[in-house]
Specification:
This protein is of the alpha/beta class. It has two domains: 4-156, Ferritin; 163-444, Rossmann fold. It is built from 19 helices and nine strands. Strand 2, helix 11 and strand 3 (257-260) form a beta-alpha-beta unit. The longest helix is centred in the C-terminal third of the chain and has 34 residues, at 453-486. It is globular, with a radius of gyration of 27 Å.
Amino acid sequence: MISQQLSKSDIKKACDILRRDDGVGAGNYVEQLSWLLFLRVFENVEAQLKEITEAEGKKYKTIIDKEYQWSSWAKKDWKDKDELIHFVSNKLFPYLRKLKDTNEKEKIGEIFRELDGNKIRSPYTLLDVIEILDKIEMTHYQDTHFLSQVYEEILQEMGAEGGWSGEFYTPRPIIRLMVDIIDPKLGDKILDPFIGSAGFLVESFHHIEENLKKKSKLGVKEWNALQTKTFYGQEKKPLPFLIGTMNMILHRILVPNLIRTNTLMEDVHNVPESQKVDVILTNPPFGGQEHKTVQNNFPIPVAATEGLALQYVMRRLKNGGRCGIVLPEGQILFGGGAFKKIREELLQKFNVHTIISLPQGVFASMGAGVKTNLVFFDKTGSTKEIWFGEVGGKFTKKQVIYDSHFEEVFKKQQKQEKSENTWIVPIDNIAKRNFDLSAKNPSKLAEEELPEPEELLKSIAKSQKETEQILSKTKKDFVIIESASKN
């Protein structure tokens, strides 16, 4: 296996080559890289599936016919280079778009029907990218997984340049922490209503798979359940939907239950039990505003997307279900009005057991500097107390967060331990502060006790009024003194 640095360097080089092509440019290179990399890696996925199927004494039926597999056309010696572009645009894409008859074929067909076709005009651009991707040897699963990770890093970095990656990419250390806390298991129906690049579903799959392997309980029945009855996702935008679907297939979930839809357009006043799930893990869109027609789909109308998203996940959970959600440090955690009503309902109908405050810069590498919190709750009754944890450190585009930064907070969360950076707040105290769920570390408050914002404003107004009264009196006294001196 080649080094991670070289892999990232090579794929970045491929991106640069694609951007220079007249037909691709800055707006489409990620999409074009995605389908090329997908076909390159999927050939290896098929080889693994064939090996597993034949080991069980069954005959394997290829998903993509040999003529259209990567090795057949990408490694062919094209005497007429223009014939390569003709084949890709007029034969490969139409074939892939028409795939059907099995769930696996239908899913790949769906991917290529969503794509806007081959945008690469120069055969030399395509050949140069093929040469780069062919350098990557993938002889077993670890290599495929490794390359998928590199691809996600490229998405992160390239997206930060274009300003779109923060919309659907969550740093993987944050995802892994959330998955470890929720601890998804075989038999759970797991949903991400805002999938982005499908990181929560991919990491949940690895979490369950590894635990089954440790117990030697990963058989055909379990594998089929993971493939078809476990992972569900929804995504509004076409590019993240495509990337998320491809990402799941590259991680060996061949028929992901993903649909392209605007989640917030669903009316959640009366969600039937059949549509509720055991686990929700998500990083919803925040900072946006929705129209009143969308707000009417929710019991508590509010324009902010994070307010709607939180209400949505609350209503999609089964009794006993559990949720981990990323929320911004803002009105949703401490605001009044509709935001307070949402929090009050959350605390009364769900057990909010953990809130972890993240430093402001953890999303900086995706072009988003918003401070965020990880909120975990179960549908097992009302909240009695909340364990808070605070993660320290300074993070920027270059200084990114790693799994090691979460080791301490995860250990303490599992045991509900108190420390300098972890504390527990009873629900009565939270109710007294208007159901404010923002993390207020008592260790730091003791050092520097700051008043609440509302109290601070009142104090400033009072001081200003007192100052004006003193100035007014002083002015009057000065007039009296000056008048007396003249007499």
